[in-house]
Amino acid sequence: MVNRFIYTLRVLTPVLLALFASSCSMLLEDDVPTVAERKTNFTVQLKDKSAFMQTLFGSENVRNAKILLQSPSLGNTYEFYSDTNGAVTITGLLSGKYFVSVERAMTAAEMTTITGSAASGYSLVNKEVRSIELIAGDNAPIVLRLDIRVGATPLIISEIYACGPPGSGLYYHDKYVEVYNQSDSVIYLDGLIVAVIYSSSYLGLNYRDDPAYIHSKSIWMFPGTGRDYPIQPGQFVVCAEDAIDHRMNAPLSVDLTSAPFEFYKDDAPDIDNPAVPNMIRIYQEAGNDWLIGGEKGALAIARFPADSLIPYNDEFLIPYTAVLDAVEYMSDPTLLDKKTVNPSLDAGSAGGIQFYTGKSMERKKLSDVPRIILRDENNSSFDYEIIPGPTPGGHH
């Protein structure tokens, strides 16, 4: 019996030791961070495609540029500035994907040297590369080439509320889009187009790569003959799906009876508030109301004559040159390869909101002086933030 026990122990001991060693190995491996978790050092090199820097400093390197890096997984944003060699050396960031935004504002004095006149509103920005991958151990410089952007859009989409309120079943009629005038002049909304940007990705088409046009099946226009509906500097204007007090149907919703405009589909069982001017439907055949996605979608505002819209299958086309502002939002805003909107209009994506949570997407505020100034880098990954609830007609 004793001999049999000793024999069994001799047989089992190597097996137990192997299991123990394997277990220890697994524990040690668990303690070692994966490549995606390791911190890394890297350099970004900024080059100028416009020749502005060559004229000013005799080199294509872009000095004094602001770089923003945003981690979609962590939500953190980091700010850096390039040195006189156009380089930014960054240490200690975790490996992974980062959204990147670069801007180098040109001063009046610099533009005088370059063009002979003190032109304003010129910047160098990154129009091509909008995200970068940082990998531990890969120390090769990341080269970004910047190009000219002139001015900021005076009229922008300031908020999109689309997901629906909490605690009220499938109620979703309280949606709205809000526009904002951040210029110092009165702008007239008359004839301005609001379009839902359409994607046919499920048909194997990719309109994002159309070099000239957005595609839309939902196009509405502000009423007026030219100077009927002014929007003052610093004014927010809400266009409601239904301009009613939605709290009657959903206690945690919002009162939109004071919305300046509403979308009313007169050939459907839609709600019309007679006290609120209606948006003019140019084209939208589907649905009983103005339709935007709850978790993902894209909107644009444009200056383009309605009778010049270009028909294309069951859609209409609007040229990029007419678009004042475009915003995309996605259920997962890190999946930029799934975008609907061409990066020249919106390089990133807002979103990450689930249905019926009552949350809203609002542009970040940069300043309160001389009026509210909102971030507008044509990159919704940086421009927008998620707020707990809608703020129609104002900023949170």
Number of helices: 4
Gap between N and C termini: 81 Å
Q: Mean pLDDT, rounded to whole units?
A: 87
The low-pLDDT segments are 1-36
Number of strands: 26
* Overall geometry: globular
Q: Please tell me how large the radius of gyration is.
A: 27 Å
- Based on secondary structure, the structural category is mainly beta
The string of secondary-structure elements, in order, is HEHEEEEHEEEEEEEEEEEEEEEEEEEEHE
The structural domain count equals: 2
- The percentage helix is 10-25%
> Beta-sheet strand percentage?
25-35%
How many strands, what sense, and barrel or not for the largest sheet? 14 strands, mixed
3D structure, described in words:
The chain is mainly beta. The chain folds into 2 domains: 35-149, Immunoglobulins (Immunoglobulin-like, Sandwich), CATH 2.60.40.10; 155-387, no CATH class. Helices cover 12% and strands 35% of the residues. Strands 9, 10, 12, 13, 15, 16, 17, 18, 19, 20, 21, 22, 23 and 26 form a 14-stranded mixed sheet that branches. Strands 1, 2, 3, 4, 5, 6, 7 and 8 form an 8-stranded mixed sheet that branches. A two-stranded antiparallel ribbon has the order 11-14. The longest helix has 30 residues, at 2-31. The radius of gyration is 27 Å and the shape is globular.
